[in-house]
């Protein structure tokens, strides 16, 4: 039986905008998606002109670590409260499916990430078992291949039921995201240090890369092939980067840094992910290609909120004016496209039989604001 109906708003279903839409338990009702009038269910929502869109799907967010390390050098000792606060933050941004990007093998001076590694994973598992999470949470292992202990940290996690995605990245200065060394120095806030100390730091990171990167990369590729995990590249800069990754079976290109790399990714059939903050801020914080430029070229498939959850919805609503993309297609970059890229065929659109994950959105001074969220037919915000 029908359990909830929506009417009097901009309801963006798989068929386009419809007059009304109903849920039947945890799924979108087939007949209502086509013919419903907004009546006939125990609960009914008058949208008052707001939008109803599919729940957002986030493939790469670093937001979890902010709740474990709320201030530089300060870790929060209660993991469960950190996870729940993160979960509420994501749902409040319209996200109903979250891939928590947890760093494995961080080289350099970000030791705090490794200190919270196990506590954050354990707290996620505890919160899930206790029924505390409003969104669906999956694990995305972002593997820093220049690190010494990447494989040692990955192997014990392979049996976790929520592990769904791997990515390989190399943030060694002088290439990929940090090919501009001055941008790297500003980001790390070391631009005023003595030049010889900066060079010592860079030389040390390059030595780690030379020692570890290739072997770790090949081992992670082997692990993903053996276990059937999708694998994403990260910060591809050249056509050679993209070709090599595609040849190794990668089908997702996260944050290509150049137009050249994005074009090659498109030609080889990779799904192209760009940062939603890049759209909202008007460009890359590290001086790389702008996401809107790629969107105008038809080279943007998926948006990720990366470090700012609210950017995901905001960027999708900005793309029509900035890149000439219809709103329905822009919203697919944060719903259907990411879901399909990782094999989640049960969500990402308000379509008959799909999961009843939905977000009510109101535009306030041109900014999309989340007013309510449903996950599997139940209101969670």
Automatic annotation (TrEMBL):
**Ranges for the Amidohydrolase domain?**
214-380
The family database entries (PANTHER family) matched by this protein are listed as: ALPHA-D-RIBOSE 1-METHYLPHOSPHONATE 5-TRIPHOSPHATE DIPHOSPHATASE
The Gene Ontology terms for molecular function here are: hydrolase activity, acting on carbon-nitrogen (but not peptide) bonds; lyase activity
SUPFAM superfamilies tied to this protein? Metallo-dependent hydrolases
Query: What's the name of the protein?
Result: Carbon-phosphorus lyase complex subunit
**Record's keyword terms, sorted:** Lyase
- In this record, what's one Pfam family? Amidohydro_3
Top-rank taxon: Bacteria
- Any one GO BP annotation for this protein: organic phosphonate catabolic process
